[in-house]
Amino acid sequence: MEAGREGRCFTYEDSRRLGVDLGDLVVVRLRGRRMQGLVMDRRISSPVDRGQASGSEAPPRHLEAIEALVQSAAVDPLWFGWIEAMAVHCHISPFRMLKAALPPGWLGQRQSHQAEPRRLWWVQLESSAINPQNLPQRQADLQAALAAGGGGAWQRDLQAAGFGSGLVNGLIKRGLIRREKRQPTDASNGLSCSDACDQDLEVPQSLTVEQQEVVEAFQSQPLGTGMLLWGVTGSGKTEVYLQLAERELQAGRHCLILTPEIGLIPQLVDRFRRRFGTKVLEYHSGCSDRERVSTWRQGLTAAKPLVVVGTRSAVFLPLAPLGLIVLDEEHDSSYKQESPMPCYHARDMAMDRARRTGARVVLGSATPSLVSWKNLAPQGQLALARLTRRISDQPLSPVHVVDMRQELADGHRRLISRPLMERLSALPEAGEQAVVLVPRRGYSSFLSCRSCGEVVQCPNCDVALTVHRSRQGHQWLRCHWCDHRAEVESSCHKCGSKAFKPFGAGTQRVMEHLVEELQGLRLLRFDRDSTGGRDGHRRLLEQFAAGEADVLVGTQMLAKGMDLPRVTLAAVLAADGLLHRPDLQAGEQSLQLLMQLAGRAGRGERPGHVLVQTYCPDHPVIHHLVDGRYGEFLKEEACLRHEAGLVPYSRACLLRLSGDSAAATATAAAVLAEQIKPLCDAQGWCLIGPAPAPIARVAGRSRWQLLLHGPEESPLPLPSGSTLWNGLPRGVALAVDPDPIQL
Ligand SMILES: Nc1ncnc2c1ncn2[C@@H]1O[C@H](COP(=O)(O)OP(=O)(O)OP(=O)(O)O)[C@@H](O)[C@H]1O
Ligand SMILES: [Zn+2]
């Protein structure tokens, strides 16, 4: 139950014979109060046992009854065992691990949900309607799907088959269909709707020789193992996932397809739906709590195997038997949950789950992480498969570096260099498109004084405030950590200078420059601010794919997954912002991002180009980007980190403390350090800190940290259970992050 910091376990009796089981949500009383609890463990006891209770001195106790069953989880013991093991791995109580694994809203479920079955929308063709001419294609498709299925279908199944509510509403307006609420059980006058929608599914592509080899290699892999699929951008990895999934489905096993970012979900879901129709479900933060609970339940009760496309938390779905787990873009750090606890990495979870259940894992990437690289057989656990050629047979696009120092020396002070300008302005005539990466969002990064160097900081956090600007031209400052907002000032409050201007370039600022400087170019902006709403990403990408713009300007997410044949130019405006982050993996991560971006160009018939603007063209990352030999980079990086004894050739663990009071937090950090120092010494780990976190204050809370560093694959030098938390003063929170990615 949610009692205390870690949640606590109590014992109750199922005297009302509700048949409760592991993971079920039940109603019990705690000190007279009705509360909801999760069933964490089960003991069968007979009256005789009770009389001779272990230890024998304890008299038989009267246990309170479980009052009601709210939700039955029906998870299998294998799944539960895995969750318990992961709790140990993440240094968290089994209760909190289970709570994190269950869909959000599970604990808040009302009993009434179960008592009365929900009524659903039923969509029915109007028999009297006259078929209009010139129906838009998708509306016609929907109409045909309904007709093929006998005239009606549940809206939720139509949704699953890719017919959104907009389309349904369109046909309602035309009077072609009507919609009513019905009880899901009385589907008497309907087809089993999924069959209707699954009628004209796409047929699989015939595989290239390389793809075929990968599929065969995977088929011969033992159950419970994994494969690293290293395939250059545009080499047809997704097609391989599709065909592997198809084989699993035929064998009656479920599939999980994971992607790091919610922005990549729509394209992936669309591709899987075209192939597998209503077998495809979604599970990610863009779904409502109710949808996630529903997908969870469908996973438990599905008669036929499913494909679930989701983000990292989908790794917990209780699908059984599970055949395949794919992690696309496996190198992406979004697979790691940093906060709140449990701080888990979906890749570790997936590998462990596969080992236990006999599923198999595919880690796909054009730029594999060093962690997976190091985990290759024979020393490690992963088989390696490669796709070295693009489907289009276009070579990877050549990379041109623009030295911005030279631009400046030549008196050219624009954001957009002359070579980039030239290429962009040639696009419309050639009927081609470009993507431009700006490594930060917002109007421009920060407000600074050119006279004294003062930068406007957030009063709550140790970060610069970002300048934002509305369409009407109004400017304001905003903190990306705590959402603090402030007005923009016209002069420096420190020295009074009027040379007080935004510095750096965000997507909005770049858009304005492009609009000014490249009249006649049509631009679209693709970042978190412009892709709001559930279908934001899909809408923008559709517009761009339909040729409504020449240039797509955006942040990180535009580098990934997009497959548009007319894009022949990929550019990055200021690579420097990426290269100089104070982060251990900055090199690896920026090269991954830049190669990913480069992979967007030249995927169709026409050759592509990549243009990188930077003030340090001699940076090793830029060199590797130009020569395109990612394998060489991995080898060098592995050597460097191996020699320096850095992760993944050692192990790290970060303890993060935060609290309202700076003094209390600092003291708690010091006390904690004293507590674990002897354990570190005994196990050959070293303890760094306590020290203030790199961003020492967020949303008014002080942050301190302890970094532990130890031998590869050794256990964390921490006391078990909740010991670490027991000594903490009120108001100070502690999170344990094993294998942290960011410090
Ligand atoms: N065997 C095939 N025959 C014909 N076309 C194919 C085949 N395999 C893939 N394609 C097409 O090639 C294009 C690129 O494939 P896909 O998107 O799967 O590559 P990818 O490796 O996943 O790319 P990226 O990692 O860059 O996102 C897609 O349009 C896909 O439909
Ligand atoms: Zn702030």
From TrEMBL:
NCBIfam families: priA. Binds 2 zinc ions per subunit. Initiates the restart of stalled replication forks, which reloads the replicative helicase on sites other than the origin of replication. Recognizes and binds to abandoned replication forks and remodels them to uncover a helicase loading site. Promotes assembly of the primosome at these replication forks. Zn(2+) 2 binds at residues 458, 461, 479, 482. Residues 487-655 form the Helicase C-terminal domain. One of its GO terms (molecular function) is ATP binding. Belongs to the helicase family. PriA subfamily. It catalyses: Couples ATP hydrolysis with the unwinding of duplex DNA by translocating in the 3'-5' direction; ATP + H2O = ADP + phosphate + H(+). InterPro entries: DEAD/DEAH_box_helicase_dom (IPR011545), Helicase_ATP-bd (IPR014001), Helicase_C-like (IPR001650), P-loop_NTPase (IPR027417), PriA (IPR005259), PriA_3primeBD (IPR041222), PriA_3primeBD_sf (IPR042115), PriA_C (IPR041236). It holds the Pfam family Helicase_C. Residues 218-386 form the Helicase ATP-binding domain. Component of the replication restart primosome. Its EC number is 5.6.2.4. This is Replication restart protein PriA. GO terms for cellular component: primosome complex. PROSITE patterns: HELICASE_ATP_BIND_1, HELICASE_CTER. GO terms for biological process: DNA recombination; DNA replication initiation; DNA replication, synthesis of primer; double-strand break repair. Transmembrane segments: none annotated. Zn(2+) 1 binds at residues 449, 452, 492, 495. It comes from Prochlorococcus marinus (strain MIT 9303). Keywords: ATP-binding, DNA replication, DNA-binding, Helicase, Hydrolase, Isomerase, Metal-binding, Nucleotide-binding, Primosome, Zinc.
